[in-house]
Description:
The structure is a single chain. With about 375 residues, the chain is an alpha/beta fold. It folds into two domains: about 1-25 and about 260-364, Alpha-Beta Complex (Aspartate Aminotransferase, domain 1), CATH 3.90.1150.10; about 45-245, 3-Layer(aba) Sandwich (Aspartate Aminotransferase, domain 2), CATH 3.40.640.10. The protein has helices at about 1-15, 25-40, 50-65, 75-90, 100-105, 110-115, 130-135, 160-170, 185-190, 195-200, 225-235, 245-275, 300-315, 340-345, 350-364, and strands spanning about 15-20, 70-75, 95, 115-120, 140-145, 175-180, 205, 220, 280-285, 295-300, 320, 325, 335-340. The strands form three sheets. A seven-stranded mixed beta sheet has the order 2-8-7-6-5-3-4, with helices on both faces. Strands 9-10-13-12 form a four-stranded antiparallel beta sheet, with helices on one face. Strands 1-11 form a two-stranded parallel sheet. Helix 2 crosses helix 12, helix 4 packs across helix 11 and helix 9 (about 185-190) packs across helix 12 (about 245-275).
Amino acid sequence: MAQELADRRKALRNSCQVIHGTGIPDAPAELFRTAAWCTESGIKQDVYGEGELIEAFEAKIASLFGHESARFLPSGTMAQGIALRIWCGAGGHFGMHPSSHVEIHEERGYSHLFGLRATLVGEFDREMQPKHLAAVKDPLATLLMELPSRENGGRLPTWEELQELCDLARARGMRLHLDGARVWQAQVAYGRSFSEIGALFDSIYVSFYKDIGALSGAMLIGSAEFIDEAKLWQRRMGGTLYTLLPNVASAASRFDDQLAKLPGYRDKALQLAQALSPIQGLQLLPDPPHTSMLHVVLSLDPEAALLARDRVAEETGLWLFGSARREPLPGFSRFELTIGEAAMQLDVEQIAAGFRSLLEHDSV
């Protein structure tokens, strides 16, 4: 029964207009698009990370953030583990927000693989602030910061708070590493250049499938010395693949055009928040959103939320969200909503009407 329900829901989703992120991935289309770009551009594959395309793209991203060097890696998990191991050394100690991807989605790899210890800095449902770091007495080698902080709705400290945080960390002798998986959104929200953001950090990780919409792939950015050491750890971790051509080409061919769309995504997120905020039984976190992502809390438990979502999908052809997680308060659930190419295909009122239908229908 459970599998039948899952199959039915998958078929329903595939027949609908998804509003989250880039929509339903079309792997064949992306591979054909990337192959055509490679043909038109005369691209040749890299071999173990060496080649004209990959090296030029690495240099481009490093320069964008005002750093000397960069390395394309298969995954962000690998990139972040490498950065923490370099800055902390064997058995070292670092600080991070309680909602960090490194803490809650990576099976504590920092501990199991590298023997590192972590101190959680700040409150889960708030962005990291200077007072949170000031309260930590542990001697930390590194402070890992995520901009924006995904698990609490894409929150950001203010630019002034961010500068104060970084100054405080440096005054205590810490290295600063940025989890910039979605830094593309943070740059738009801050209205600062990528190089201004980059100047605050010793190393930076960025993702190319989040917001850019490319195949999987990540970049680790820092000084030439740091990246040389990162290459050594990449090989030790089995990340020096024979070629990364599809991933690099997908990212490089998309990057400039996609980056130019991000201000529009944030504008749409702000417009949508204004339309959704008055709906009874729905709460936005944060409200207004800091970036082009936010969390939506429904006055429905997860099972009821999914059933209501299915009904709206059948009635309107809109797929409002995927999974819904249980909130601590009984009878409530939450989901993440990122505004990207999918939502840009719809009017704000269309989306708002879908949510009104979801909550009104359920209350009947």
